[in-house]
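Let's sit down with a protein and look at its sequence and fold side by side. Go ahead whenever you are ready, and we will take it from there.
>
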Amino acid sequence: MAKKKRRGLIRGNLERISRKVFDLYHDEITELVGKQHGVYALYKKERLYYVGLATNLKSRVKHHLQDRHAKKWDTFSLYLIHNVAYLRELESLLVHITEPKGNIHRGRFTRSIDLINTLKEMMEVRDRHQREDILSGSRGKQKPKYKTVHKKSTKNIGERKRGIPILKGMLFPNTILKVKFKGKEYSAEVDQDGRIEFDGKVFNSPSMAAIHVTGGQKDGWHFWKYQNASGEWVKLDELRKK
């Protein structure tokens, strides 16, 4: 039995077509494109000027012959899309990468997590442990490898140490972390290695544990709370001020 070929993302394209062609052969292009969905790009003297999406490409490009972009492009490209489910995010991705002058808004990614806070936490861990190595006079230690989420059952928690947990040495083992999110209370526990045990999983960073709760980007240091020596529930960020 012949293997079925996987359908690609792009079903058809027109690239670097002069706006004069669009003017002179508008009916032909209209028939060719029809009412298909896709992404288009406008160029001025070979330089990308604008990226957009449309559920009706023929009317969208025609509109740009009269609007604020009218005199700012001389060629265009059209890309017809098979699956329109990610059409808007595809446009945002292209705008984020190419940064065309004509695009005022860059757009957003629906469920993408901004990893900058997690990266900062990893950098802080690396810097902290490098300082510890220098002060202790130790040499030749292997650089930590990070895996932010470990999908291990609670039975295996503590059996294997992977990476360097950010809270190591900052909180006592069995410290409880709490948070209230959308009316529901959640609690987690810090193990002897500084990892956060929550929902049957183990997290090396407060932010990744917070992301597991919220489903979106959260700064774990300002999300989770712990009980300090005075018995007050305060944000984890207080640990970084000491």
